[in-house]
Amino acid sequence: MPNRVHPIAAIALLLVLFIISLFIGVSSLTLSNLLEPDKLEIFLVSRVPRSFAVLLTGVSMAVAGLVMQMVVHNRFVEPTTAGTAQGAALGLLAAILLFPSAPVMGKMLIGSAGAIISMLVFLRMARHIPPSDPLLLPLVGLIYGGVLGALVTFIAYEKDLLQVVEIWFNGDFSGILRGRYELLWAGGVAAIMLYLLADRLTIVGMGEQMSHALGIPYRQLVLLSMTMVAVMTALVVITVGMVPFIGLVVPNIVRRFVGDNIRHALPWVAWTGMVMLLICDILARTIRFPYEIPVSVIFGVIGAVIFLYLLIRPIRQKN
Questions:
Q1: How far apart are CA 295 and CA 308, in angstroms?
Q2: Cβ proximity of 9 and 1 under 8 Å
Q3: Which residues contact 22 (CB under 8 A, 6 or more apart)?
Q4: Taking the C-alpha atoms of 279, 280, 284 and 289 in order, what is their torsion angle to the nearest 10 degrees?
Q5: Which of 81, 167, 289, 291: CA 20 to 30 A from 261?
Q6: C-beta of residue 33 within 8 angstroms of C-beta of residue 294
Q7: Model's pTM, two decimal places?
Q8: Structure confidence by residue, pLDDT tens digits, 79-129
């Protein structure tokens, strides 16, 4: 794909999808009626924030998935299939129950702490799983995430907070307005920071012994990168909700064409994440127009099919 798509064509495609996203919705907006005050207000308060939220969510989850796969040395894991997103939801639920008057930033920090703790537990489990079977780790991650998700649902049911939890578990951009998505920009900043660490993370992906041999502080880099991944995941969960399979599907597609060098792969991973999520969000708004389908449903169906293909393909090749 990157070998076949010119960067200018890639940027043009992204701009076209972004413009389409700006002008699709229940309220009919055109370039001419944007001069009307009420139409302009809808455009600035709802459409622009929503389109930027889609871009930032696509970047955050796709980059988080790529970095997580490099650190864990497994192509079948990502934050939503390794318990990280569910850990963020558990942290957010704890913040609501224990500190109900805390500001959004404080709840986000507690959610990030939950994501970090759940990720550290997953990394601990990953060290005891034999690398000879690459399918075992994602299956363990799915079970682990399912247990955490069930715990969140049980606590929410007991405390009458199921409606709040449902928002976190179902990624949806329909509630995005100006003033309710700006935290996602921090995820974009984290993606840039990870790009600055790209060369070191590529060496980390070669293993702990290779990293030590080349003078790279393996454990510190793993902790730093996983902290960024946890923060990006928590930001998406608290703002949009979980959108499964982005971090799994996008890196696997891009690495087929670019390879394992993060510096080369990361910009294309970010671009592919934005393009795929924009397409899914446009479909979510048009399939049952004027009603919307949560974007997590659209991407979940597409991602699940690709995920099953990625799981089954090695088995068929082995046989």
A1: 20
A2: no
A3: 29, 43, 47, 48, 51
A4: 20
A5: 81
A6: no
A7: 0.87
A8: 877 788 888 888 888 888 888 888 877 887 888 888 888 888 888 888 787
